[in-house]
Design goal:
By secondary structure, the chain is of the alpha+beta class. Helices cover about 15% and strands about 25% of the residues. The protein folds into 3 domains: about 60 residues, Roll (Structural Genomics Hypothetical 15.5 Kd Protein In mrcA-pckA Intergenic Region, Chain A); about 90 residues, Pseudouridine synthase, CATH 3.30.2350.10; about 170 residues, 2-Layer Sandwich (Pseudouridine synthase), CATH 3.30.2350. Strands 5, 6, 7, 8, 9, 10, 13, 14, 15 and 16 form a 10-stranded mixed sheet that branches. Strands 1-4-2-3 form a 4-stranded antiparallel sheet. Strands 11-12 form a two-stranded antiparallel ribbon. It is globular.
């Protein structure tokens, strides 16, 4: 494990800044993630990024955990239906399923696998490039380029507004009607995306939110096996299954827009959910459909079965919404 002793001139500095000497290539964000993941110790004790070091302290960084064997991640018929896997390959593009709990990209300080690290194994292409990121708790479709031509094709469609992404989300509260969130987002720095008070964001950064089903509090019970809830806070009287449509999108766009309208994602404590998971960050958001010119990619909803008993006909409503032609919502 790399280690070094804090110098006299570093006395009183924050650990994430001092780490630059030991980890010069990963950036401030990566150094903070390493501390938050427990991969950095001072005098043998894990500490957070804001810890103030003292001259003579011994700082150590632990290595990232190795990638699990192939039969534990993807590519085997014996795998769970919610494992990372290939959905479709249409050269020069490929489309994969990312389960909730798997990181999209490899970031310094992350002690677990990522979809990005699995790409060569899943696609058999050493230099395949992941084209979109999903938050760790988000499941669904991720696109990848098999070569430079694929990346150019995807980016051109994305920037021209010819790409449509449809998500399913469980929101706290009763969403009465379809709403368009066109508030600009400030995504610079920090763990939160700030929603600005102005209106009229560029169409590529807007979110259209449509209620598909209204569920009462009893619908939460079958979900607790998937999302352990803390026994604090008041459960919402109603939960809305919503369809969210975006184009190019931005970091945390759906999460931030829904919360700004008063309907945070169920379990999303970062954006104000009244119910919070016991461990880490977990909520219900699924990238269910990706539409490109001449191509539609769909991924099944992993938590749909848990809602069927509480909302008869739910599958049919979702199927009908996903079947609408691209551009219908805009």
């Amino acid at each position: 494990m790399p280690c070094w002793t804090v110098l006299p001139e570093e006395e009183g500095l924050r650990l994430d800044h001092v780490l630059q000497r030991l980890l010069p290539d990963i950036g401030l964000r990566g150094r903070r993630r390493a501390c938050a993941s427990g991969l950095v110790t001072v005098n043998g004790r894990p500490v957070r990024e804001a810890f103030k070091v003292r001259a003579g302290d011994l700082v150590e960084t632990m290595p990232e955990q190795p990638l699990p064997p192939a039969d534990e991640t993807a590519g085997s018929a014996a795998l769970s239906e919610d494992a990372a896997r290939v959905l479709k390959i249409r050269p020069p593009l490929a489309f994969l399923y990312k389960p909730a709990g798997l990181h999209s990209v490899s970031l310094a300080g992350r002690p677990c696998p990522s979809l990005e690290r699995l790409l060569p194994r899943l696609l058999g292409v050493p230099k395949a490039l992941l084209l979109n990121r999903l938050d760790c708790p988000t499941s669904g479709i991720a696109a990848a380029a098999l070569d430079n031509r694929g990346e150019a094709l995807y980016r051109e469609a994305e920037n021209a507004g010819r790409l449509e992404k449809r998500y399913l989300a469980l929101l706290e509260g009763e969403l009465p009607e379809t709403l368009l969130a066109d508030m600009p987002l400030n995504c610079s720095g920090g763990k939160h995306v700030r929603v600005l008070s102005a209106r009229g964001a560029a169409p590529l950064r807007q979110t259209l939110i449509t209620p598909l089903a209204l569920l009462d509090g009893s619908a939460l019970k079958p979900l607790t096996a998937l999302l352990p809830i803390l026994k604090k806070g008041r459960p919402p009287a109603a939960v809305t299954l919503a369809g969210c449509v975006i184009a190019k999108g931005a970091r945390h766009q759906i999460r931030a827009h829904c919360a700004a309208l008063g309907f945070p994602l169920l379990g999303d404590r970062r954006y104000g959910s009244c119910l919070q998971p016991e461990d880490g960050e977990r909520f219900f958001l699924h990238h269910a459909l990706l539409c490109l010119p001449g191509l539609r990619i769909q991924a099944p909803v992993p938590w749909l079965a848990a809602l069927e008993a509480a909302a008869p006909g739910l599958s049919l409503r979702i199927t009908d919404w996903l079947a609408l032609p691209a551009g219908t919502h805009t």
